[in-house]
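in:
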């Protein structure tokens, strides 16, 4: 809010009761997908899409959002208990994840 704005004597412009019908479940993927630009692994195409939006033009990611591949085209990978890639299910992974690799 801007400095100096006081709401003590603000008037109500109108009110309206709204009902929201939230879905009971979401149609999200239950797979791990790998970003082809930085090799990080995310939960489904939704996770990759969020990642793409956050890293436009940074860390080897395209500078223009229109240059990104479709998240459904990112490789599907299987992970071990330490979130290391153990094999590619669909597509080509660029390299194994070392996010939580234990020695």
């Amino acid at each position: 809010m801007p400095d100096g704005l006081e709401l003590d004597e603000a008037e109500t412009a109108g009110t309206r009761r709204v009902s929201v019908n939230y879905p009971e479940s979401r149609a999200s993927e239950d797979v791990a997908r790998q970003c082809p630009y930085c090799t990080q692994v995310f939960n489904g195409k939704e996770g990759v899409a969020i990642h793409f939006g956050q890293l436009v033009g940074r860390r080897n990611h395209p500078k223009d959002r229109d240059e990104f591949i479709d998240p459904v085209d990112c490789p599907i990978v299987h992970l071990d208990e330490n979130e290391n890639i153990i094999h590619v299910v669909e597509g080509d992974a660029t390299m194994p994840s070392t996010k939580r690799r234990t020695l």
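note: The radius of gyration is 21 Å.
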